[in-house]
Write a structure and sequence with these properties.
It holds the Pfam family PDF2_C. InterPro entries: HD-Zip_IV (IPR042160), HD-Zip_IV_C (IPR057993). This is HD-Zip IV C-terminal domain-containing protein. About 20% of the residues lie in helices and about 35% in strands. The protein has 3 helices and 8 strands, in the order ββαββββαββα. The two termini are about 25 Å apart.
């Protein structure tokens, strides 16, 4: 899906391309959530990590479950003096499923917000993933009425929003669509490989 963002201080101006896909994985929702929210494992699937380690530099709990929180992650933590990007992430899990939403933010914008500035004027395009059980969460290998085995798993949905052009009047290109499609396909494949599961 494409849309034009104009005169909204909470989003960068231009053409925004949104893409999402869903895949069933033979893995528990909890294991999927723990993997996706772990900043130490982020380089295994997220291009924003630049292939290096990430470090959680702020953690705000949202309830008693440690997984329900807002975090500020530093990309390429070993060279943080060269990086001007942080990742703001919110994670939560309950009986219905899990959610990991994140967005790259620049350091000056975060300094403004952390010093009491209005966060409504920080332009962001969040991306993320949702995992949810596809059964009651228990593996039932005796199968259903048709004799086929039923195994619990998770339905993983991955969604990206990308600013493909800062000029609202420009037409979107096939190359832009291919780039987003490749990015989302690559992320899903890397998640499957890291968790050693097939859809």
């Amino acid at each position: 899906m494409t849309r034009t963002s104009v005169d909204d201080p909470s989003e960068p101006p231009g053409i925004v391309l949104s893409a999402a896909t869903s895949v069933w994985l033979l893995v528990s929702t909890q294991r999927l959530f723990d993997f996706l929210r772990d900043e130490r494992l982020r380089s295994e699937w997220d291009i924003l990590s630049d292939g290096g380690p990430m470090q959680e530099i702020a953690h705000i709990a949202k309830g008693q479950d440690h997984g329900n929180c807002v975090s500020l992650l530093c990309a390429n933590a070993m060279n943080s003096n060269q990086s001007s990007m942080l990742i703001l992430q919110e994670t939560c899990i309950d009986a219905a499923g899990s959610l990991v939403v994140y967005v790259p933010v620049d350091i000056p914008s975060m300094h403004v917000v952390m010093n009491g500035g209005d966060s409504a004027y920080v332009a962001i395009l969040p991306s993320g993933s949702r995992g949810g059980p596809t059964s009651n969460g228990n593996a039932d290998r005796n199968g259903g009425g048709d004799g086929s085995p039923r195994v619990g798993g998770s339905l993983l949905t991955v969604a990206f929003q990308i600013l493909v052009n800062s000029l609202p009047s420009v037409k979107i290109t096939v190359e832009s669509m291919e780039t987003v499609n490749n990015r989302i396909s690559c992320a899903v494949q890397k998640i499957k490989d890291a968790l050693q599961c097939e859809s």
